[in-house]
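Morning run. Coffee first, then this:
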Amino acid sequence: MCPPRNIKHPQIQNQLKTKNQTSPSLPIPKYMYRQTIQTQQTFRSIGLHTGKTYQLTLTPAPSNTGIILNQIPLNQWKIQKSDWATRIKHNEQQISTIEHLLGYLFLANINDIDIQLIEVDHPQSTHLEVPILDGSALIYDQTIHPTTALPPTQLTYQTCHQEINLSYLQSSIQIRPYHCFELNYHFQFPKLKEKKLTLTFHQSPTEIPLHLQSSIKSARTFGFRSQEALLRNQGLILGISLDHCLIYNDQESELIPMNPLRFEDEPAFHKLLYILGDLMRINQRFLAQINIIRGSHQLHAQAVELLKSQWHDLH
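And here it is:
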């Protein structure tokens, strides 16, 4: 049976029971509180797809603020159809390639933050892209320091109440009620080695082993030389560079990376980063077992909307 909606984590409940029986009770770990960032941080870089320069400013926010993007709560933005990046829209505003930033916020357990994004040369522009930086979440990880949001507030969790199954072509996603957060990902990509990865935590993403966290955060976006002309003709990857993208030359007899991999299976770990970023659009911690084969931005977006509708129906 699935736990009730919007529960405090079981460990907190156990500590409260202990408090009634013995004194003093155990202190609640810091990661069980809502988190923000210590200081304001600004990043400036080009957009992977537009090639334009953008400025991203992250500001600490009070507890229970949630993730605010250009003054609008993240869960009020609507997903737009896109095969190559997460693209969201609210009224006239449109923002793309937000999955690396959101994937980092997921792993860093940051719940409350104010995000402001502008195009440097045209500050009034409403069609924006999160700067690509080094193609991963590594610079965020090296620069940002999470801290407890004020006033201190314990994290609450939503739960999956009904199983979700979605598929399209060779990709599929299943989300099931579960006692913790578990993500099982089967990486399958033409020309690249298959890889199966699992992430599990009961209380906080910070429980994920450090070597896995590091691999996910530092894995760069990747692509293939054979697709470059096609994508450019579609107005995409106009800002692509070997400085922030792992590019494979697949026009020869063997697949050769044009720049060195940071570690083995880097593309598989990058896919995990963007999956976590897509799930972070819920703007709410939740417990579920998630099984993904290949995956796609569009499938993840549909699953997120179905999860949100489950919770909405309970109010």
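Helices lie at 10-21, 99-108, 138-143, 210-218, 228-233, 266-280, 297-313. Good start to the day.
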